[in-house]
Amino acid sequence: MKRAVVLMNLGSPDSTEVKDVRRYLDEFLMDERVIDKPLWFRRLLVKGIIVPFRSPKSAKAYKSIWTEEGSPLLVISRQLQDALDKEIDEPVVLAMRYGNPSPKAAYDSLVAQNPDLEEVILVPLYPHYAMSSYETAVEYAKEQHRTGGYKFKLTTIKPYYDDDTYLHALCESIRPQLEQDYDQILFSYHGVPERHIKKGDITGQHCLQVAGCCDKPSAAHQYCYRHQCWATTKEVARRLNIPDGKWGFSFQSRLGRDPWLQPYTAKRLEELPKEGVKKLLVVCPAFVSDCLETLEEIAEEGKEEFMHAGGESFEMIPCLNVHPLWVGALKKWIGELSSGDKTMELGKMFHERA
Ligand SMILES: C=CC1=C(C)c2cc3[nH]c(cc4nc(cc5[nH]c(cc1n2)c(C)c5CCC(=O)O)C(CCC(=O)O)=C4C)c(C)c3C=C
Ligand SMILES: [Fe+2]
Ligand SMILES: [Fe+2]
After folding, report:
1. How far is the CA of 223 from the centre of ligand 1 (A)?
2. Which annotated residues bind Fe(2+) (predicted)?
3. Nearest atom in ligand 1 to 13's CA
4. Looking at the 3D structure of the chain, how many domains does it have?
5. Which ligand 1 atom is the nearest neighbour of the CA of 25?
6. Nearest atom (ligand 1) to Cα of 256
7. Same domain, 201 and 114
8. What residues make up the domain containing 260?
9. Start-to-end Cα distance in the chain
10. With bands split at pLDDT 50, 70 and 90, how would you rate the model's confidence at 354?
11. Chain-centre distance of CA 27, in angstroms?
C-alpha cells in the first residue's frame, strides 16, 4: 500500500505583523464552526469588531513567544513531523487549518513525490473532538481532498482522548513534574461556548442538561468536548495516583460574552491562592504542541495572575511536543490502521445540526 501521513494542526499567523495577524484572525473567526452565527452577523462581528480590536493585542502576544524560526506551534509541529518521519516508512507532511501550509499544498507535495499514492492518513493534532477544532480541521481536509480530485483515499484518525497509548504518553510527560512539591495540578483546556456543546449533542437531551452529564454514559459523548476533556483528566489523575483535591479542571481562552465551559481558568487562578493552593502546576492537554495559548496565556499571563493573587510557585508542564512516547503513539496508530479501527466518519455535521 502506497501511503503517506498528514499531520494537521490549527495554524498561526505568517508573522507577528498586525496585518498578518489580522488576516489569520479573519480566516479563523469567519469559520462557521468557530463563530457559529449567520453569515451577515458573523461578518459584522468579526470584520467590524473582533478583528480590528483584537489584532494589535494578539500581535503583541505573539511577539512575546515568537522564535527565530517562527511561531512555536508551527516550529514544534515541524519538529514532530521530522521525528515521525524518521520513525516510519511513509512520508510525513504538515497541514494547517488556517494559514499555511494548507491541506491542498500538503496533498500536492505528496502526489509530486509519488503520483501512485493510494492512501493518506490524516492525523488531527487534537486529542478531543470539538466542532471548532477537530471537526473543522477534518471537514476542511476532506473538502480539499474532494475538490482537488485526488485519486488517493483519505483516512482520518479519530479523537484519541481515551486511547491507552496517548494517555500513557501524557502521563509520562507529567510524571516527572509531580516529584516537586505542589498543592494542586490544574488541567486547563481550551474552552468553547456552551452552545457548541449543546449543538453537538446527537441525543438532543444529554449534554449540559442532565446533572453530571459527562459522567453518565451517553451516545452524545462521541462528539462532546467537555466529556472528552473530563475523561482525559480523570484517567490521568487515576493513573498517576493524584488524590482528589490535588487536581483541578478548568477552561481557558474565552472570547466574547456568551457563556463558555466553566470553571474559567483565569478565575480559578485568582481563587486558588485564597483556597490555600500556593504551589501550582498547570497542564494543558487539549494542545499537543505548545502554542500561544500555553506559552503566553498560561505560562506568562496566567502565572502573573496567580502570583499576584498570592501564589508562591507556578509551573507550566510542557505539551507532548516531540516526546518520544507521543511520537511512538503516532507510529503505533499509523501501523495499526490496516485493521481500520482508527477511522472516524464524522457524525452530524454543523450544517445538519443548525
Ligand atoms: C484545542 C483546541 C481548540 C479549540 C477547541 C479552540 C476553540 C476556539 N478558539 C477560538 C478563538 C481563538 N483561538 C486562538 C488560538 C488558538 N486556539 C487553539 C486551539 C483551539 N481553539 C490554538 C492551538 C491556538 C493557538 C494558535 C497559535 O498560533 O499558537 C485565537 C488566536 C489568538 C488570540 O487572538 O487569542 C483565537 C482568536 C474560539 C472562538 C474557539 C471556539 C469557538
Ligand atoms: Fe482557539
Ligand atoms: Fe457532559
Report:
1. 18
2. 190, 293
3. 28
4. 2
5. 37
6. 39
7. no
8. 168-316
9. 39
10. very low
11. 17
> What is the 23 CA–ligand 2 centroid distance (Å)?
15
Q: Is the predicted pLDDT of residue 245 greater than 90, yes or no?
A: yes
**CA-to-CA distance for 119 and 267, rounded, in angstroms?**
46
Strands 279-283 and 153-156: unpaired
145 is in an annotated binding site: no
Question: Ligand 2 centre from 190 Cα, in Å?
Answer: 7
Model pLDDT for residues 49-96, shown as the tens digit of each residue: 999 999 999 999 999 999 999 999 999 999 999 999 999 999 999 999
Whether residue 352 has pLDDT greater than 90? no
> Quick one: 275 and 332 in the same domain?
no
Rounded CA-CA distance 225/195 in Å is 12
- Note whether 292 and 180 are same-domain residues: yes
Same domain, 130 and 180: no
Pair 98, 129 in one domain: yes
The answer to whether the CB of 233 is under 6 A from ligand 1 is no
Helix 72-87, helix 324-336: angle, nearest 10? 60
268, 298 contact by CB (below 8 A)? no
Between 210 and 341, whose confidence is greater?
Answer: 210
Question: Are residues 299 and 260 part of one domain?
Answer: yes
Q: Is 227 assigned to a binding site? A: no
Q: Is residue 63 located within the same domain as residue 177?
A: no
**Ligand 1 site-directed mutation target among 293, 319, 320, most atoms within 8 Å of CB:** 293
- The CATH number for 198's domain is 3.40.50.1400
Q: Is the CB of 96 under 6 A from ligand 1?
A: no
Q: What is the pLDDT of residues 201-214, one digit of tens each?
A: 999 999 999 999 99
In this prediction, residues 187-209 reach a mean pLDDT of 96
Query: Is the minimum distance from the CB of 185 to ligand 1 under 6 angstroms?
Result: no
Average confidence (pLDDT) over 100-126? 96
Whether residue 14 sits in one domain with residue 146:
yes
Whether complex ipTM tops 0.90: yes
Q: Which ligand is nearest to the CA of 292?
A: 1
Q: Which residues lie below 8 Å from residue 2, measured CB to CB, with a gap of 6+? A: 114, 116, 117, 118, 119
